[in-house]
Amino acid sequence: MKVVTNMAIDYKALKNGGFMRQVQKNTFSLRLKVVGGNLTAEQLITIAGISKKYGDGHIHLTSRQGVEIPFIKLENVDDVKSELEAGGVNTGVCGPRVRTVTACQGCTVCPSGCIDTYPLAVEISDRYFGRELPHKFKFGVTGCMNNCLKAEENDLGIKGGYTIEWIKDSCTLCGVCEKACREGAITQTETQLVLDESKCNNCGRCVKSCPFDAWKGESGYILSFGGTFGNLIAKGKVVLPIIHDKTVLFRVSDAALAFFDKHANPSERFRLMGCI
Amino acid sequence: MADFIIDETVDITDVVCPVTFVKAKVALEELNDGQILSIRMNDGEPVQNVPRSIKEEGHQILRLLANDDGTYDLIVRKAEV
What we know:
CATH superfamily of the largest domain in chain A: Sulfite Reductase Hemoprotein, domain 1
Number of strands of chain A: 12
Distance between the termini of chain B: 27 Å
Shape of chain B: globular
CATH class of chain B: Alpha Beta
Number of domains of chain A: 2
CATH architecture of the largest domain in chain A: 2-Layer Sandwich
Oligomer: heterodimer
Largest sheet of chain A: 4 strands, antiparallel
Strand content of chain A: 15-25%
Distance between the termini of chain A: 38 Å
Helix content of chain B: 25-40%
CATH class of the largest domain in chain A: Alpha Beta
Helix content of chain A: 25-40%
CATH topology of chain B: Translation Initiation Factor IF3
């Protein structure tokens, strides 16, 4: 990307490439590409080196798991980019396109996790990151109902959950799951457990807490659409049942982005299209 | 109903999360493998969360019993962990 000409500075190209114009003239805060909030130690060392060499020695962590290196001078933009790339770090994006895909640590690390969030975030990022659209579009992946990653504040939020099934032969009627369920969906009688499926929110706490593996959980994705958390604060809505198949998940997200791309007016967020 | 003999008891109704689990864990450490601990806990967060934490530590939960005073007794067999 050649951004400096004799005539003028192409701020739009800079911004698209992750260089955010600062208050200070000809100075930029460089947004980096981060997926699911994960960076390797080596990438962090590269970032630290760039900050010390070209910035002012500090690094900013953004509200959506992004990393920015502030106080990059215009004349160093190309050097900074090439040195970052050599160190395995890519620049991020801004503007009307698919933004950083965020994620919690998911079931690989967190005992509460119902889905493997990080590989899913990588897959989403590889498929959509930077794709141009009528306005910004944010994905967030959270592993369970605790919602540490706040799925519903994204244009498309993905939350892990379980569809549950009682395995009668394994159950001792110990009493744990009836209390573990926060929705009051499980009632224990003298001889059995009764599940009120209309109350079950797929949180999987019965599965996680059962001492006898008498609740079987099939993990899946609960999608929310149309969340925003800036000028307008609005919670994304869940309009589909839990999805168990990842190929179905991607069919839905492909369709959502295609619909947004085709029908939204320029600068219109997904939520404001009137269909959510 | 009582197909177990309680070796030791601990009351965690006087503490709040996360000390509830810590106190239960310390009490379990005092026991020998295979011994049975009864943990008295409050309704709400403790009874929602402590059983799961005990399970994740690898111990065997046997039963959760409701007491007349609104508390619960969680019966746990200490496992080798």
